[in-house]
Amino acid sequence: MIGKLSGRVDYKALDHILIDVRGVGYLVYCSDRTMATLPSVGEAVALYTDMVVREDLMQLYGFTSLVEKEWHRLLTSVQGVGAKVSLAILGTLGPEGVSRAIALGDWASVKAAKGVGPKTAQRIVLDLKDKAPGVMAMGGTIDQAMDGPALDAVVEPAEPAAKSNKTPRKPKAPSGAAAASAGALSALGNLGYGPSDAAAAVAEAAGNNPEAGEPELIRAALRLLAPKG
């Protein structure tokens, strides 16, 4: 199983990229959102990958973060959801958007992705709602930028003709929003709130104030969780 690739971009198409890893080319399919963040031809790149092997098919799917990869794994575990639909959902919402939509039971946002009907969107939310807290917590713990020595060790120097004056673009580190949501989720869990209730409250608080830090999210989520009346 191939779980991660580090190499150089050989070429980019609309929905896939060819990564040259020490002379071996790997064709990797990605969501529209991921494709838009990838570096130019000739530059260094690293992607987490998921490999699908069937009798008539062997394909790699690429992700810029472990959270995105985990959502792909969970989405494709839902009946009727294949890799193409999963990438469409991730491309439309992004991993944080998927976390928020599923935690809130917002199947209408999931349905906005190309190829997703209302019944499929409702099934996704129903099947994965209890998984959202765990994936949201991943955002502030193990999601790391993919650069530095690990990438340099695999990527060989480019040929002189392929050299560019541009500084290679590095993959983004985990966002502050993801870390804040994960911290708030952990804090609410420590206060005794159930994972599903806590995830829904944090997702709603983050949606209302995307720039909020962890303390602000905790306070907002606690207000949402407070008994009404």
UniProtKB/TrEMBL annotation:
Pfam families cross-referenced by the UniProt entry: HHH_5, RuvA_C, RuvA_N
Protein localization: Cytoplasm
Entry keywords, A to Z: ATP-binding, Cytoplasm, DNA damage, DNA recombination, DNA repair, DNA-binding, Helicase, Hydrolase, Nucleotide-binding
InterPro entries in the record: DNA_helicase_Holl-junc_RuvA_I, Hlx-hairpin-Hlx_DNA-bd_motif, NA-bd_OB-fold, RuvA, RuvA_2-like, RuvA_C, RuvA_C_sf
Positions of region (Domain I): 1-64
Gene Ontology terms: biological process: DNA recombination; DNA repair
A cellular component term, taken from the record's GO annotations: cytoplasm
Domain (Helix-hairpin-helix DNA-binding motif class): residue spans on this chain: 73-92, 108-127
Coiled-coil regions listed: none
Sequence segments annotated as region (Domain III): 178-229
MF annotations from Gene Ontology: ATP binding; four-way junction DNA binding; four-way junction helicase activity
Task performed by this protein: The RuvA-RuvB-RuvC complex processes Holliday junction (HJ) DNA during genetic recombination and DNA repair, while the RuvA-RuvB complex plays an important role in the rescue of blocked DNA replication forks via replication fork reversal (RFR). RuvA specifically binds to HJ cruciform DNA, conferring on it an open structure. The RuvB hexamer acts as an ATP-dependent pump, pulling dsDNA into and through the RuvAB complex. HJ branch migration allows RuvC to scan DNA until it finds its consensus sequence, where it cleaves and resolves the cruciform DNA.
Family stated for the protein in its record: Belongs to the RuvA family.
Oligomeric and partner information: Homotetramer. Forms an RuvA(8)-RuvB(12)-Holliday junction (HJ) complex. HJ DNA is sandwiched between 2 RuvA tetramers; dsDNA enters through RuvA and exits via RuvB. An RuvB hexamer assembles on each DNA strand where it exits the tetramer. Each RuvB hexamer is contacted by two RuvA subunits (via domain III) on 2 adjacent RuvB subunits; this complex drives branch migration. In the full resolvosome a probable DNA-RuvA(4)-RuvB(12)-RuvC(2) complex forms which resolves the HJ.
UniProt comment concerning the protein's domains: Has three domains with a flexible linker between the domains II and III and assumes an 'L' shape. Domain III is highly mobile and contacts RuvB.
Name of the protein: Holliday junction branch migration complex subunit RuvA
Organism annotation: Epibacterium ulvae
